[in-house]
Write a structure and sequence with these properties.
With about 130 residues, the protein is of the alpha+beta class. It is built from four helices and five strands, in the order βαααββββα. It has helices spanning about 15-25, 30-40, 45-65, 125-130, and strands at about 1-10, 70-80, 85-90, 95-100, 105-110. The chain is elongated, with a radius of gyration of 23 Å.
Amino acid sequence: MSQTVVAHAKGVRMSPRKVSEVAALVRKRSVADALIILDHTPRRAALPVSKAIASAKANAVNNHRLIEGSLTIDTIEVTYGATLRRFKPVAHGGAHRILKRSSHIKVTLSGQEKPKKKPAAKAEDKKEDKE
């Protein structure tokens, strides 16, 4: 049975266009492959994308009991975050606007669930077996 896990990285101080170019590199890949690709990608946006994927992986393994080797990336969505507007003074008392964009990264993973362990026999049952 396949299960999905989600992780968010909000307010990343990079333009969504730049982040989405890096996210496109690893879309629909296994988590292990994606992390290796991002480690060797010479873009500044590779670090927050890999952190979001690593967070989703940790959520899947520790909270949702999924098998680590079976994890694949279903979707990576990069959306606009808050934009900080700053002004730079220019000639003749004018000002040019500078937009400092941010982005939100949403990673969805899917994978196989670990089989559940059978409950251990109670202490009372063990005593009866010995007698």
